[in-house]
């Protein structure tokens, strides 16, 4: 009995331990189960939204947080998250998404009623969420100032009006497409084009004459992957201000297909705005050259640039700045395009022929808009691209990209991988051989800017040299003594070694592998012959309102040079 009594306390002590284990398991498994159930419900809601987005005529986009006070267009409640249409600007809560899709029509690319004239179209009003600092067209007072769903906005002309100022006559009034009427392709025009194509008529000029000579329709070609994915947001903002049919994402629709819209518009009237880096601009200009090959020269557009890349030397040369980060509204960008002037840009053919008696490969051909180089700057670009291909997500910031370039430039200052370049190459300008000093790099320029905003040919500006031009059929050839010399040139502490100007440049690499680049696209090249000749001209748009200090000083130097002559 005494032994049984002695063994019973340990048996009873196990019971509290069992309860502790049970409660511990519940406290661990219950949050896991709740988290799993919530994620399952969230995925179901996402699938439901995607199904609505896929079937809808609206351009719905999800957002976790609206950037300014927003009200649902269906239930009129204040919302922090939900969906918005990047074509008409409609904003709704997640629960009202299906009802909004049925109740509110989106922007019409083409008119359903064929009896309406090409230039006659009533306003398309949407209630609520009007832009900040907008004013009523009737009483001229500020709209959208009350903390509720109020006031109206026309999704075509962007005019706003108070609830109490809205009249029946205003609802049926003809829309004039507002400030950007000379850039918008009206839905009625496309409807008339569709009818003419059915009857096999192609007299588009007579149809376009209704809009006047000032009508210069604009096509937007944006790279959604450029500028830390800023291009995707710009696509929506342009769709709101223009006809969605004018706005293309080049990652989904290649430029050659998008530019076929030019064939439905008046001759030599179309303007194209390229939103991306210099690589995207080159891609679009190559598509324009394909239009020339197809015999569509009379439809060739003029090209403007909204810089979203890292270097943006071409856009800087054309007056569009070194980079766009949303510092000016998209509406101002459209105003700049309307004010821009047409100019020509030289385009050059770069032919690389490998050496060797048994080389049966065709020569590699590139089209150059900006510059060709061999040496330290090409080596930095080659190292940068090699690491960006391995981890592209790490190279999404302009500042980070330039920091990586600085790192590789500093490394090359110590290693000097491109030294004794003058012993490895021969250079000919217009057929005449040039003796070279002890250089590490040679750069052939077509435009004024190089290396992210440096005027390389002018250097420090302390010597009277003719300005580098992009439309004179001449190339500027300079040499650099190394990466440290490149850095000195960029901060205006040194001048490049100016070799000369020429219409044709020939470079012979006699031995070893050397880094080369054309417009920022680098590769490692063995013994070869590089020949640069003029290819064609591109029609560009120059904006004189965006001039840097270098532009102003260079222009004044040019005026002083003319005075001395």
Automatic annotation (TrEMBL):
<dbReference type="Pfam" id="PF00609">
    <property type="entry name" value="DAGK_acc"/>
</dbReference>
<dbReference type="InterPro" id="IPR000756">
    <property type="entry name" value="Diacylglycerol_kin_accessory"/>
</dbReference>
<dbReference type="InterPro" id="IPR016064">
    <property type="entry name" value="NAD/diacylglycerol_kinase_sf"/>
</dbReference>
<feature type="domain" description="Phorbol-ester/DAG-type">
    <location>
        <begin position="57"/>
        <end position="106"/>
    </location>
</feature>
<dbReference type="Pfam" id="PF00130">
    <property type="entry name" value="C1_1"/>
</dbReference>
<feature type="domain" description="Phorbol-ester/DAG-type">
    <location>
        <begin position="122"/>
        <end position="175"/>
    </location>
</feature>
<keyword id="KW-0677">Repeat</keyword>
<keyword id="KW-0547">Nucleotide-binding</keyword>
<comment type="pathway">
    <text>Glycerolipid metabolism.</text>
</comment>
<dbReference type="Pfam" id="PF00781">
    <property type="entry name" value="DAGK_cat"/>
</dbReference>
<dbReference type="InterPro" id="IPR037607">
    <property type="entry name" value="DGK"/>
</dbReference>
<comment type="pathway">
    <text>Lipid metabolism; glycerolipid metabolism.</text>
</comment>
<keyword id="KW-0863">Zinc-finger</keyword>
<feature type="transmembrane region" description="Helical">
    <location>
        <begin position="20"/>
        <end position="40"/>
    </location>
</feature>
<keyword id="KW-1133">Transmembrane helix</keyword>
<dbReference type="InterPro" id="IPR002219">
    <property type="entry name" value="PKC_DAG/PE"/>
</dbReference>
<keyword id="KW-0067">ATP-binding</keyword>
<keyword id="KW-0808">Transferase</keyword>
<keyword id="KW-0472">Membrane</keyword>
<dbReference type="GO" id="GO:0016020">
    <property type="term" value="C:membrane"/>
</dbReference>
<comment type="function">
    <text>Membrane-bound diacylglycerol kinase that converts diacylglycerol/DAG into phosphatidic acid/phosphatidate/PA and regulates the respective levels of these two bioactive lipids. Thereby, acts as a central switch between the signaling pathways activated by these second messengers with different cellular targets and opposite effects in numerous biological processes. Also plays an important role in the biosynthesis of complex lipids.</text>
</comment>
<keyword id="KW-0862">Zinc</keyword>
<comment type="similarity">
    <text>Belongs to the eukaryotic diacylglycerol kinase family.</text>
</comment>
<protein>
    <recommendedName>
        <fullName>Diacylglycerol kinase</fullName>
        <ecNumber>2.7.1.107</ecNumber>
    </recommendedName>
</protein>
<dbReference type="GO" id="GO:0007200">
    <property type="term" value="P:phospholipase C-activating G protein-coupled receptor signaling pathway"/>
</dbReference>
<dbReference type="InterPro" id="IPR046349">
    <property type="entry name" value="C1-like_sf"/>
</dbReference>
<keyword id="KW-0479">Metal-binding</keyword>
<keyword id="KW-0443">Lipid metabolism</keyword>
<dbReference type="GO" id="GO:0046474">
    <property type="term" value="P:glycerophospholipid biosynthetic process"/>
</dbReference>
<keyword id="KW-0963">Cytoplasm</keyword>
<feature type="domain" description="DAGKc">
    <location>
        <begin position="213"/>
        <end position="354"/>
    </location>
</feature>
<dbReference type="InterPro" id="IPR017438">
    <property type="entry name" value="ATP-NAD_kinase_N"/>
</dbReference>
<keyword id="KW-0812">Transmembrane</keyword>
<dbReference type="GO" id="GO:0004143">
    <property type="term" value="F:ATP-dependent diacylglycerol kinase activity"/>
</dbReference>
<dbReference type="InterPro" id="IPR001206">
    <property type="entry name" value="Diacylglycerol_kinase_cat_dom"/>
</dbReference>
<dbReference type="GO" id="GO:0008270">
    <property type="term" value="F:zinc ion binding"/>
</dbReference>
<dbReference type="GO" id="GO:0005524">
    <property type="term" value="F:ATP binding"/>
</dbReference>
<dbReference type="GO" id="GO:0005737">
    <property type="term" value="C:cytoplasm"/>
</dbReference>
<keyword id="KW-0418">Kinase</keyword>
